[in-house]
Amino acid sequence: MLYTPPPRDPDAPPVRINLLSDTQTRPTPAMREAMARAEVGDEQIGDDPTVNLLCERVADLLGKEAAVFMPSGTMCNVAATLVHCRPGDEILAHESAHIIAREGGAHAALGGFQITPLPGADGQFSPETFRKALHPRSRYQPPQVLVSVEQTANIGGGTIWKKGTLDEIVALAKANGIATHMDGARLLNATVATGIPAPAMAAGWDSAWIDFSKGLGAPIGGVLAGSREFIDAAWQWKQRLGGSMRQAGICAAACIHALDHHVRRLADDHANARALARGLSQIAGIEVQEPETNLVFFKPDGAGISGDRMVTALRRRGVLLAMMDGRIRACTHLDITAAMIEETIGYVREIVRTA
After folding, report:
1. In this structure, are residues 181 and 204 in contact, taking their beta carbons and an 8 Å threshold?
2. What sign does the CA torsion over 124, 174, 195, 20 have?
3. What distance in Å separates the CA atoms of residue 101 and residue 110, rounded to the nearest whole number?
4. Cβ contacts of 122 within 8 Å, gap of 6 or more
5. Pick from 18, 135, 279, 321: most CB atoms within 10 A?
6. What is the CATH number of the domain that holds 200?
């Protein structure tokens, strides 16, 4: 099981340090004010000016022709595969990718697609692994029509796909008539960490999207971008999936505020993640993966305590996180301060000492 929910303990104190996920962020007062002031209309008929502005900005940000506002990142992925593929088609993705492990089998249930898992360290497959997975088109095998990458790679530890690797995968895909899709839920974490502009990072990918309800701190929404023809088709799937909304400008205003105020500050989350990793690694027996962005994966087994017990012990101290893929995952975000990081390290040290 990739994800183990935190234990339900009725006697646990209120959560004071929420490292469960960057989806746990709450809208800031300034974001709430922007939402209250939003100019709105009927989004479903293209009459909400704030939604339209958001889509224009994200299309420009990702270097695409057009974009569509979706209620969730999952709907971005599902709508994209439903546009790119037909029943019986094959999608290639890393074995830990969100579209395989975290979307309830939607791509098979709704589209009848086969997703072939590709192996690779840190949540990424190599261009060579991708090349070896390709097969000649014949009536005996499913048509390979789409390759998908996840930037950053969540289960891989929030790792960043290198620009050169992305370019090689795109070149191989295009040479073999395969479309390309980037699950960019934390794409802006990658751009902030590397300094590579988002249009360059997404160049060559036929569809790409960013999530606003993670590190960007909005309460809802993702925006999917691509060609005008692709977005027209994605809009039809948004309608079919029940994703069309009415006065959605209230939500879009939060996303615009995030673009204006919450992108550069992702560097603070990365700094806090490095500080957490550094402090944990100084505790004997704790194995820590060095973070590249805002995700810190660690195992305390070598210190004489299991991950489940550590998660439970931290929860009793008001710290919330969870097991993921056999390790503990801590996620830094705009509601986490440097002081909270130091407090968490102190608790882990105390738990190990008394284990």
Report:
1. no
2. negative
3. 16
4. 153, 156, 157, 159
5. 321
6. 3.40.640.10
Q: How many residues does the chain have?
A: 355
Q: Encoding tokens for residue 158?
A: 């929030």
116 sits in the region (left: phi over 0; alpha: psi -120 to 50; else beta) called beta
What's this model's pTM, rounded to 2 decimal places?
Answer: 0.95
Q: What is the pLDDT of residue 1?
A: 44
- CA 73 to chain CA centroid, Å, is 8
H or E stretch covering 17: strand 17-18
Q: Are 213 and 222 in contact (CB under 8 A)?
A: yes
Per-residue pLDDT at 300: 98
Count of structural domains, the chain: 2
Q: Integer distance in angstroms from the first to the last C-alpha of the chain?
A: 26
> Letter for the amino acid at 11?
D
Could you tell me the sign of the dihedral formed by the alpha carbons of 200, 184, 98, 294, in that order? positive
Q: Is the same domain home to 273 and 249? A: no
* Half-sphere exposure of residue 111: CA atoms within 13 angstroms, side-chain side: 26
Query: How far is residue 233's CA from residue 305's CA, in Å, rounded to a whole number?
Result: 51
Both 293 and 239 in one domain: the answer is no
b/e per residue, 302-326, with b = 16+ CB within 10 A? ebebebeebbbbbbebbbbbbbbbe
Question: Per-block average pLDDT, block size 10, for the chain (355 residues)?
Answer: 62 93 97 98 96 98 98 97 98 97 91 97 98 95 97 96 98 98 98 98 98 97 98 97 95 98 98 98 98 98 97 97 94 98 98 93
Which residue is associated with the tokens 């999207």? 209
pLDDT digits (tens, 9 = 90+) for 53-88: 999 999 999 999 999 999 999 999 999 999 999 999
